[in-house]
# Entry
Amino acid sequence: MINPLKIFSVLLVSLLSMLSLFNCYQASERKVTPAFYHWKNTLNLSDKIYQQLHKLEVQKIYLRFFDVDWEHGKAVPLSVLNKQADIPDSIYIVPTVFITNRTMINTAGPDIPELAEKIFKKLSRLSTEFKKEQIKEMQFDCDWSQQSREKYFHLLEVLKSKLSNQGLKISATIRLHQIKYYQKTGIPNVDRGVLMFYNMDDIDQLETPNSIINISLAKTYLSELKHYPLTLDIALPIFKWGLVFQDGKMVKIINNLDSKELGDEEHFFKIQQNRFEVSKSTYLKGYYIYQKDQIKLEQVNIKTLREAADLLTENINNDDLNVIFYHLDSVQIADYSNEDLKNIYHRFH
Amino acid sequence: MKILRTFIIVFINLVLLLSPVQIAVGCGPQLFFEGYSFINPDIIDQDSDYAPYFFYFKDFYEHFEKAKEIQNQSNLAEWKSVFCDQINEKALAEIIYYAPLSDMKLLRTAVNNKKYPLSPRLKTNPFARHLRANKCRSTINYLIFAKECEPHVSYIDLWDSPKRDTFRMQELIDRGLQEFKKSKSNYIKLRYAYQIIRLAHYKKNYRQTLDLYEYLIPKFDPVESIINYWIMGHRAGAMMAMGEQVKASYLFSLIFENCPSKRESAYRSFKISTEAEWKAALLLCQDDKERSTMYAIRASSESSRAAEEMENIYQLYPESPNLELLLVKEMKKLEKDLLGTAFNDRKRQNKQLFGIPRKERGDLIISLHNFVKKCLKENKIRNLQLWQLADGYLEFLAGDFYAAGKTFSKIETQIQNPVLQEQLRVFQLALKINNFRRITSEDEKVIAAIMLEDTLYKKYKDFPDFLNDRLSHVYKEQGNPGKAFKVKFQLSDLKPNPQLEIIDDLLEVCRKEMPTKFERALITKKDGTTIESDLLDMKGTYFLARGKTETALDIFKRIPRNDWNKHQYNPFIEKLGPCIGCELPDSIILYNKVEIIQRIFELEYKAKSDFENGAIYYYQLGVAYFNMSYFGHAWKVMDYFRSGVNWSYDKDQVYPDYYAPFGNRENHDITQALEYFEKARVTAKNPELAARAAFMAARCELSMFYSGKGNQYRGDKIPNLPPEYRQYYQILNEYYSETGFYQEMIEECNFFAAYARR
# Structure
């Protein structure tokens, strides 16, 4: 005879087990928001880019609105975004401002609130070109130093208060070294940070294997990531460039350069993998380069991106995470398939 | 009670003292390239307006105001010449740049009708009076028109996201066209054409800009004026915007060559992107001079290889003044690479931070020198003497000092230009200093004469460094470390980490019966006394800090007795809490270093001989050694400089310090103090004293933990002491928990309780 109590007990245990399994699943599944940085002066997205955004299920674009630099003895906004296209309603926009460290160094402490006010007003004006509902957060990017830290953090405090009055969150970019040495470099008082997982090695040295990304070097910086007291998102590089060295000194960066453009044997001589010597002075992508200059090509392949994603996912504690590719450029994105990029997003789950 | 409070303060202060790791990062100077330069920029043509483009490219933006100033000055100079130099520039500027529109309109009324007087502000202005007296209606009408155009074409506040009022700008263009037609003067027509074309350009209507140019310029006879180039700039700008990069760049090169007031903007606007564009632009040039300007613009880029461009310019136009500028620019780069690198003590820093010297410096100097020799041989260049000087200096930089000396001597009589003559003497003096190989007494006389009497040595700011670095290098090589140090540094720079060999070498100089004038300068202080007592004090302190008390006492006693009491301390005052900078009562007895050591000897004797009270003396010795260490209030007995951030472990206890050539040594070693506290504890008959000694020993352990190898503790919490560093807390807990000293602490100090009970 079947004991109803026993059946009930078995069902209860099964249900509880399922619930607990479900809970486990819930706890381990991280919410990942696919995102991109847009770092160009003109917002002009091709149909192909729109399609890619759709296919990659991109939900956020960190849109550089303008830079703030120090010119003629004052802080000025430069390279203001020229909007020539819309961003789909389904995608949130995070207006982003890049502030040069020299601006923070040169701005006097008492002038910080005024600078914050100017930045805030400029951001507010430019934001009106987009739908209000698309903007929930604004971001600030500055590679602050010890000399500028106090003023930059003060600037962020003032901006945070202004943005919070408008119901907006504030985020700031964080460099790898600022994670490792956070007790020395400080932590900005913002709602979230974005760990820029690139430009991590010495760009000025010809012998640096890849200044954009170096996984073994990155590992040495990540010990403190779990303890970093600010919720962090991740920015990953999908860009390439050519670094021009003259007499051992890096003198130019040529964006989007790849080996195909150095195939002309009259002018370029391949000396090793990704390294070329200019055998005859010539123009290259608008720059005049001289005989004996050396060009080092750097880019990030998909394998390295996967390694980076795996390394970061092990070291980051967030339940929700924005994973941002730097940056939205039709030439650079063409080096990666949608599946590969999607896979990178998925590795963070 | 007092003890407990003190104990709490100990830890609060320890926490505060540990946190400065953060401060340390921000300390220190901003670092710049540190080398020498003896090239006087005046050797290039002072009238050359190109200099900034070749010398100060990095400061380009700093020249913005300067460029604006040049533009205004050029404009005023031209107006001045239009009025036959009768009106001064100040009067012109007052009307053209500063008078408000309302005053200008009043001036026009006064020009049109003599009944109306000039406004009070312009009443005494000679230009206003001239315009009125000569009824210059056309001029004043133009000036008013220009003033009305100004707000539409001037700098705008970028923060405000302003939009230009294109409707009003078009109205002004239309009005300008009417005025242009009415005007009879070619010069005023030219000025109207400029205003009109400029408005169209600022409107960003590039087609209209070019159309207006085509329409207006043929409508009047050519006039020689800078305005032609200003107009050319707007035309080129419009062309550039419309994709005619080659033609535009060619026009910008003409402006760069011929119009100083627009040189900066022309330089910035010049843009050639491909080989084909470059060739096309060269084809547009009318002659080799124009072509050479194109090469000069390309050469002025920060990343140009000047030697290649110089060769190009030389082939086209050997007399180009740009060649001289490039030559000097390249020599300055090579000077950084090569001058004094054998003895520059910032060599490593220069390499690490600035990549100087460059790897290819050898090839670069050979190639430039060959070019110079070719130019001298062919003698087609403009300023032969400058190239002769360059020849000698390049030999010097390449390390061929003999040849350089010969070249300099050879051209001594040929150089007539006073600036070049001075440059020659400067190079000769640098060579003379560079050639010191072994410094004798005779040489020291010569050195003293250079330092005291040579006007060029005083005029050229890098000479003192160059000489000191050279001498320091040579003295070191010949076994005079003291002199090597003293020619470069102050004695105070040695105090953070005294070096025996330096002290002994300098003491030897002090004891010389007949020192040279130069040596006297090295060892004499401002008050006329020598540094001997300071050296002895440093030497004694060196030994005292290393536990060699008897040697230290012997050395201190050699200091004249009058100097003994210059610095006095009392390390025997017991302080249970941290007291690095705390004030001690005025009433305490102070001891000089001799007396301190004598008192230590006395305590040591008593500790060993007095069986009953030995523990008290051991305890006092422990207190003294603790206080004289980095962690105590009398640290100055054993050290001269203490940095609050140097808590953590460092090899040999020497911490890097930008201003101290040998770093800063901290006296972290408190094993001697710990030893005495342990002896006091073991021999104490009174448990209260034993507890006290154990407590002080625990302090020693804590300090040893903070400064110990492998300690990564940087936080702001009570550290989790490893067992080997809390033995005395354990001893206190196990053996002295019944003492009043212990009870008092446990009751009132949670911190201590936490440690003791672990």
